[in-house]
Specification:
The structure holds 3 protein chains of 3 kinds. Chain B has 2 helices and 5 strands; from the N terminus they run E-E-E-E-H-E-H. By secondary structure, chain B is of the alpha+beta class. Chain C folds into 2 domains: 202 residues, 3-Layer(aba) Sandwich (Glutaconate Coenzyme A-transferase), CATH 3.40.1080; 310 residues, Glutaconate Coenzyme A-transferase (3-Layer(aba) Sandwich), CATH 3.40.1080.10. By secondary structure, chain C is α/β, with parallel strands linked by helices. Classes of the chains: A alpha/beta, B alpha+beta, C alpha/beta. Chains A and C meet through helix 6 of A and loops of C.
Amino acid sequence: MNISDRETATVPHLANSKTVSWYEASARQRVQLLLDAGSFHEFIGPEQREESPHLQVFDLPTQFDDGIIIGRGRIAGAPVFVAAQEGRFMGGAFGEVHGAKLTGLLRAARDTKSVPVLILFDTGGVRLQEANAGELAIAEIMRALIEARMAGVKIVGLIGGRAGCYGGGGLIAGCCSALAVSEQGRIGVSGPEVIETNRGVEEFNSRDRALVWRTMGGKHRRLLGGAEAFVDETIQSFRSFALHLIGSAPVFGAEVLKAEQTRLEQRLQRFGLCADAVDIWKAEGVADAEAVPVMAAADFNDLANKAREPRYDAR
Amino acid sequence: METLSYRHKAQERAAGSKSLAIIGVVASGNLEVLVERLLPDTECQVDINTAAEGFGAVWEAVVADFVERRSPGGLKLSINDGGARPDTVALRLAQAVRLIEEDDQ
Amino acid sequence: MTAWRKAQNSRDARIAAGSKLAQGKVVNARDATALLEAVIRPGDRVCLEGDNQKQADLLAGALATVDAHHVHDLHMVQSGVVLPEHLDVFERGIAKRLDYSYSGPQSARIAKMLFGGKIELGAVHTYLELFARYFIDLTPHVALIAAVSADREGNLYTGPNTEDTPTVVEATAFKDGVVIAQVNEIVDKVPRVDIPGDRVHFVVRADKPFFVEPLFTRDPAAITEGQILTAMLALKGIYGPYGIKRLNHGIGFNTAAIELLLPTYGERLGLKGKIASRFALNPHPALIPAIEAGWVEQIHSFGSEVGMDDYIRARSDVFFTGDDGSLRSNRAFCQVAGLYACDMFIGSTLQIDLQGNSSTITTARIAGFGGAPNMGSDARGRRHPTEPWLRAGQEADPDGPATLRRGRKLVVQIGETFGDKNIPLFVEKLDALILAEKLKLELAPLMIYADDVTHIVTEEGIANLLLCRDKDEREQAIRGVAGYTDVGRARNKKMVQRLRERGVIRRPEDLDIDPLDADRSLLAARSIKDLVRWSGGLYAPPSQFRNW
C-alpha cells in the first residue's frame, strides 16, 4: 500500500462498519466503509481546492471538495467508481463544480465500458445560488449517465442520507440501473415544503412526517417499484446490496427503455387514483398495510419480496 | 467573508507519515479542516476562511492554544468555517492533527 | 349570620346562573362562552390550566371571546402562559393582572405586552410557590381545568397529564370557588377517579382532545460532541464522586446526553447502581435506554410526555401508575420531591454572571421560571442526611463543626460556553438586571441565585463553587471554565492555575477524559428510532420526531 498525496484520510474512532449508521456518517465515512479498506483513490481531492466560484458573492463559505467526493476503488475486490454527496454541505445540492465532478466521473466510466458506478445520493436538488449552472449540470449528468449505460456500465444509486434525493437528484436517480434505499431515505422531485406552499396544507402537510415518509420514503419506493432494494441503515447493508445490484442490474438499450415506459404507464393506471400510499400497498395485496411504516427491515423485506410484481426487464 | 492566517513556531514535528488529512463538514455551526504536511518541522500555519466576521481575536486565541497543546510542527491547516463556535473549532483542529498522525490502515 | 357566608352565597349564585346552560353538570361546547359569562364576575381571580404541558384550550378560547362589558379586570393566576389566547384576554380588556410561572412559548409577546403596559404584573413565580399562594392570597374564584374524561357526576380522569389539576381544584373547590372542566369525552365510568365529582361543578365536552405539547422529547440525532463532552464531565466529575442516586434533570440536550450516556459511558465507569437510580423527572424518552439497562429504580413525574403512555404502562415498577395502568403525575408533589428528596439538580440556562447567578431572561424574551428556582434551590428545611448532601456541606464549610453543619443540595449548571447562535453563556451583567431597571421591578428575575449554585460544567471543565473561599475565587473559577467568551478570555491566568491545582477547577485531562473521545458513538441511542427499538416498540413518538 503506497502512501500517496492523493490518499483520503480515514476517520478515527468509528465502530466497525457493521454498526455504523449510513444516516449518521459523513460522505467520506460512507466511501471509506463501503469500499475495500484502503482501496479508495480520490479524483480532484480537497487539496486541489476546486471550490465553488460562485458562493463568495453570497457570503457563503465553500467546501474544498464542493460537497461531492469522486474516485475509484474496489468492492469485494472488483473495481468500481464512486461518487458521494455530502448532504450537510448546502443540503448536498448541485452546483457548477459539484455537477462537473459527477459528469466527469460518468464519462470516465463510459470510456471503460465496464467499470460500474456507485452514486451515493444525498441531495435536495440544485443550489439556488448556482441555479443555471446547476440545472445545466443535471442535464449533462443525465446524458453522461445514459451514455455510460449504453456503453455497458451499471450505475447503482444508494440513498439514505439526511437530504434524501430530491430535485435534479431525483431525476438522475430515475436514470440509474438500480437503486437501494434505506428507511430514512426519501426519493422525489418536489420537496414536501414546496408541495405544501404551492398546493396548500390540505394537499400535503409537510409537517406530517409520517405522511412524507409514506409518500416518498424508502419503504414506499421499494413497494412501488421505484427502488430495487430496501436496506437497513448500516453501511454494511448498503455494501451488500450495492454488490448484489451491480451484479443483477439489467443491460441497457432501447428495448429496456420501452419496457420501462410500459411499466410506468401500467403503474399509473393501477394506482393513479389512490389518495395515500397505504391504498397503493393494499392494492398490491399487502396484508396489514397500516403496519408497514413501523415494520423492522427484515420483516419488511419478506413482505416486499412477496408483494413484488414479477421480475421485469425494465429500467 | 473574512480571511485570517496565523503562522506559529511549534515545539515538535507532528508525528506520523501521512501527508494529507481532512475532517469536518462546512455547515452551520461546523467547519472543515484540511491538513497538509508541507512546512518545515517546527513551523505551522492555520489559514481560515470564515463567514462570521469580526472574531479575529477569538480565532487568534484558539489557534495559539491549539499550537501550544498539540505541537503541529510541519503542518498547514486550512479551514472553511460555517460559523462554528470556538470549542468546535478547537475540537476539529485536534481531530485533524490526530488524523494525520495516525498510521495508515 | 350571612356576613360569614358571602363566598358560599356567591358560589351558589354563580352555579345557579351556569346551571341554566347545563344538563346536570354537562354543558355543550358551543355554550362555553356563555357559561363563563354566567359564572365569572368582574375582578375575579381565574386559574386557567395553563399547565406546563396540557392546556385547557377550549376554555381558553371561550374566555378570550367573552363580552368584555360583562367580564373584565380579571386577575389571571396560572402556571403557564402558553397559548395565544392566554394573552388575548389582556389585549381585549377581559383580564388586567397576571401572576404566573412560565411563559416560554409566549416569551416574546409577553415581553412586548409588559413593556407596553398591557399587563399589570403581580409576579413571576416558580411553580410550587404559585401553588402555595393558591392557598393563601391567590385563591381562584373560578378554575378552568382540563381532563381526559368525566362521568355524569363530574368525576374526572386526568390521566397521565394530571399535572397541576389536583392542586388547582383543592384550592378552588374548598374555598368556595367554581370548577369548570373541559374533557375529551364523557363516559359511563372513568378509568380512575383523579378528581372526585363533588368538587367539579361543570363539565364541557370539547370537540378535540386538549392540547398537549411534547416538551421533554429530545432527538438524539441533534446531540453534539460538545454536549457529550459536558455529559462525560458531569458523570465522571460529579455524579460518580458524590454518589448521586436521587436527582432531577432540568430540560435540555445536555441532560439528554447524560441520560443516553448512562448505559454506555456510565457502565464503563462502573457507576451502575451507584448513581442515577431515583428521579423526580418527566418521562423523558431519552431515559429509556437507561431504564431498560436496569439503572433506574423509581421515577416520580410532574406530568407525562406525548408518546410515552404505553411504555409507562409496561414499566409500572418504575413509574407511578394507577390501577387503570396509566401514569399518575402530580406537579406539586414532584416539585416537593425535587426540593426535599433529591440530592442534586442539574440543568441548563442562558446566562451566568461572574458570581454564578443564572438567568434565562433576556430583554426581548421573558420566559419566566418554571420549576427551576425550586428544584435548583437548597432546601434549608431538610433534615435527613445523605452522603452527597453531607459532603457538599463539608466542602462549603470545611472548618465548621460536623454535627452542626447542614448539608447542601448540589445545584449544577451545565452548558457549552457559547449557546445557540453563538451567544456567550457567560456575561458580566445579566439581562435580567437590565430588565428590572426597565420595568422598575423590585427584584431582578433570576432563575437560580449564585449562593445556590454549587457547580458549573462547560466543555472547558468543572468549577466547584463550594470550594471557593471568597468572591474573587468564585469569579476566577467561573472565568476559568468560560472558554473563549469575553468573560473567559479576561481570566487571571495565574489564579486560575492555582484554582486548578486545588481542584476547584478540573479540566477534562484532570479527569482522564480526552475531548476527542466525546463522540456520538457513545450514545446508547443515536436517533428517535433507536429509542423506539430500546423500548421494544412501546414508545410511539409524535409525528414531528419521525423519519419513517
